[in-house]
Design the sequence.
């Protein structure tokens, strides 16, 4: 089936330089963006109940940009002055560069993996003396904490934001050739909004192993997957699928 329309379950890119816009123009495809989940902040008052002190940690593990945003938001609300000696361990290079929004990049000790959390473990092993903070959502990948426990490193899991299902009722009678997901929460949102959803000829694209698992566990057919060696990004994986199915 030729792909003519795609719904990406993320916010529309803020800049015109996006590979999705290039895809849309190159292949004359309609690409819409709509977050299937929204993120709500945990207040400082709520966070105090966890009895976690941000400044008692010497390193932070970031697995998403949301985690970066909410870590520094909470630090500001708690009036915690994050020292320059803080070390940052990021799941990917893009997440590491995102830190520039909050810190002077060249003056900080910042480490990153390639894309998967497993890639970051070797770096963390070399810094086992640190006390790590893992900022995350109330819905997160338990494998991260399991792997940290297996490494026998000291860490605290800090829930700084909540993942909430978006209202997608206005899409009830809208059809797309492909739906693109980036987290298990997106699949959960799909079925909470549309309990009777039938995939039929709709193509499903998933980014990352946990999203892939959620797709398959929901009884859906997975048609496009990233990252792969020849398709490290979702846009590249989609383009390859389009080329093959012209």
Sequence:
């Amino acid at each position: 089936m030729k792909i003519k329309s795609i719904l990406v379950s993320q916010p529309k890119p803020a800049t015109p330089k996006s590979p999705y816009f290039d895809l849309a123009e190159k292949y004359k495809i309609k690409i819409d963006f709509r977050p299937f989940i929204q993120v709500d902040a945990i207040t400082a008052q709520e966070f105090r109940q966890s009895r976690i002190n941000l400044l008692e940690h010497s390193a932070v593990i970031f697995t998403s940009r949301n985690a970066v945003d909410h870590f520094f938001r909470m630090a500001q609300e708690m009036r915690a002055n994050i020292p320059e000696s803080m070390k940052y361990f990021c799941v990917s290079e893009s997440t590491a560069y995102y830190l520039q929004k909050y810190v002077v990049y060249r003056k900080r000790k910042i480490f990153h993996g390639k894309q998967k959390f497993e890639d970051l473990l070797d770096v963390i092993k070399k810094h086992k003396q640190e006390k790590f903070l893992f900022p995350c959502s109330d819905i997160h990948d338990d494998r991260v904490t399991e792997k940290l426990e297996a490494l026998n490193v000291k860490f605290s899991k800090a829930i700084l934001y909540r993942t909430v299902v978006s209202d997608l009722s206005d899409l009830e009678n809208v059809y797309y050739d492909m739906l693109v997901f980036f987290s298990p929460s997106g699949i959960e949102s799909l079925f909470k909004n549309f309990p009777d959803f039938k995939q039929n000829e709709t193509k499903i694209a998933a980014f990352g192993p946990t999203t892939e698992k959620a797709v398959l566990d929901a009884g859906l057919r997975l048609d496009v997957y990233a990252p792969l060696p020849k398709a490290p990004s979702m846009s590249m994986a989609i383009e390859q699928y389009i080329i093959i199915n012209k």
